[in-house]
């Protein structure tokens, strides 16, 4: 039986809203800290109408500019905020205002020193959060973030994009390497005052090193010259991993792995797409691809590197650095609890 054209038009018109209603609403992403190039790059990936796989089904809908007096923040926050506004993302004045509009959060502030401060309301609001590198401005703050997230059962993870780059992942899984006996990574290493020396940009190479070596670093020794940092760690079983940070000129990023089956190198760098795919999967599954323990150990590695310099290049044990920080974390959490209770009382 043939439908009359008018009836067919009515059927299609009436059915359209029903078909659209079957499509799940996108997961709404909010971004805290509009002062890094990661912000437009990540937004473009998640808001791409042709996004597929773990990138599909998300929408960056709101952004909170934030910012500090740190030059890479201070000098770029307006440019990136204006760009996000032009891209149709709503700009809000406060983190609570942002949290009321979104399902999940990307904490992107380029200045790691304020990450704990910005993460607290996100965790208390129980919003899953990805915290861009570095997870915090100190080991104590990093441990406080993860402990706060654990206590409130909030999914949380942090990573450099280098961890998921095809070159690094390829080395980790290479049959040509086999069992990893050691690794060396290298790359640029500019500093930020007020954080561990390797924390700002050297973290990319350190993240790659831990991706290849895994956890279990026991001690760290650092040699610091005018243009180069050479940081060597001894892992359990006597394996050795090192990072060479280049400060005196341009440097590419790379890695070499020493394995039972052979020695293989890669010159691959960052991959925003692969990182964002992991973030998308994390937001859906609530399962972090990087454990808090490994990220905390990686931060202890960076702080131990600073301590080694203060001790004239002597080895520093990771366990010592972790214990010193752990002794301060509970005090930090009590301070957070008191301040949040006080803020809640003032608002009541």
UniProtKB/TrEMBL annotation:
GO molecular function: nucleotide binding
Alphabetized UniProt keyword annotations: Signal
Statement: the UniProt record of this protein carries the keyword Signal: yes
Entry keyword Cell wall biogenesis/degradation: no
Residue ranges of domain Gfo/Idh/MocA-like oxidoreductase N-terminal in the record: 76-157
Top-level taxon of origin: Bacteria
Signal peptide interval: 1-20
Protein name listed in UniProt: Gfo/Idh/MocA-like oxidoreductase N-terminal domain-containing protein
Protein's organism: Caulifigura coniformis
